[in-house]
């Protein structure tokens, strides 16, 4: 068993599993649900539950760019929340990094980009910690280091479908806590909760993660909250002839 923090994937999705409202960065749940009658009335419940999640939040730079962090400033006291952000491109510019550095108890930047804007801001913000990798981020190593070097015991994951599937298939997600919005979005190219490459062979079936229901709650305005434990050991029986 890996000695890593306990993790919970926490997101809002439509009934058909979409975590965005469309196939481009101009369309976004946070911006769009609050404009749609039948969705805006109960959306506050997702944000109330979000306030009760772990004090360490795992995000991606791409998602944060999409929600406009690069244009934000933080002029209040730091929060008690630490942020872990995976960002290679980079998607975050200096203003985005400064926003998180000012807002966070600690900011962990996970990257393969040796010229990431966070590198030049470390002296100014000693709460920035950079975990650098050469060609590809080793997420198992990331989670091990977060616990061993920084004492992190629990993490809430709030990333996009492509990163979610990497973490899931590596066995790095322990629970999923999902708010289901009362809507159907559709769209072949619209992000789902778990994205990435499809399964192709019978051998790939071992990548399916089964779940055990822990809690289900009917919220107001037809919203639902479900919590599952991820059973990371998948056993695939031989096909009967």
Structure explained in plain terms:
- The chain has one domain: Dihydrofolate Reductase, subunit A.
- It has six helices and nine strands, in the order E-H-H-E-H-E-H-E-E-H-E-H-E-E-E.
- The longest helix is centred in the middle third of the chain and has 10 residues.
- The chain has a nine-stranded mixed beta sheet.
- Helix 4 links the parallel strand 3 and strand 4.
- It has 241 residues and is of the alpha/beta class.
- The chain starts with 5 loop residues before the first strand and ends in a 10-residue tail after the last strand.
Major sheet description:
9 strands, mixed
Poorly predicted regions are none
How many domains comprise the coordinates? 1
> Would you report the number of β strands?
9
Second CATH tier, the architecture: 3-Layer(aba) Sandwich
Radius of gyration over alpha carbons? 18 Å
Give the overall shape, derived from the CA principal axes.
globular
- Beta-strand fraction estimate: 15-25%
Structural class: alpha/beta
Specify the helix fraction band. 10-25%
Q: For the residues shown, what is the average pLDDT?
A: 97
Order of helices and strands: EHHEHEHEEHEHEEE
Q: Output the strand order for the largest sheet.
A: 5-4-3-2-6-1-7-9-8
């Amino acid at each position: 068993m890996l000695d890593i923090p306990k993790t919970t994937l926490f997101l809002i999705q439509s009934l058909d599993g979409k975590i965005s409202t469309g196939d481009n960065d101009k369309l976004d749940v946070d911006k769009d649900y609050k404009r749609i009658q039948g969705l805006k009335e109960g959306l506050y419940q997702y944000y109330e539950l979000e306030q009760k999640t772990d004090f360490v939040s795992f995000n991606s730079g791409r998602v944060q760019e999409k929600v406009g962090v690069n244009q934000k400033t933080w002029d209040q006291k730091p929060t008690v929340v630490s942020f872990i952000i995976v960002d290679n491109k980079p998607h975050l510019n200096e203003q985005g990094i400064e926003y998180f550095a000012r807002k966070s108890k600690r900011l962990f930047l996970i990257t393969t980009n040796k010229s990431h804007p966070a590198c030049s801001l470390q002296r100014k913000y000693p709460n920035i910690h950079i975990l650098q990798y050469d060609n590809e981020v080793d997420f198992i190593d990331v989670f091990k280091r977060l616990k061993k070097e920084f004492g992190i015991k629990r993490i809430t994951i709030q990333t996009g479908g492509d990163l979610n599937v990497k973490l899931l298939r590596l066995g790095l997600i322990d629970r999923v806590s999902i708010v289901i919005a009362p809507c159907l979005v559709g769209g072949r190219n619209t992000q789902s909760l778990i994205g990435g490459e499809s399964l192709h062979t019978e051998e790939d079936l071992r990548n399916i993660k089964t779940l055990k229901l822990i809690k289900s709650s009917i919220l107001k305005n037809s919203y639902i909250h479900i919590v599952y434990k991820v059973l990371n050991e998948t056993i695939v029986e031989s096909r009967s002839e």
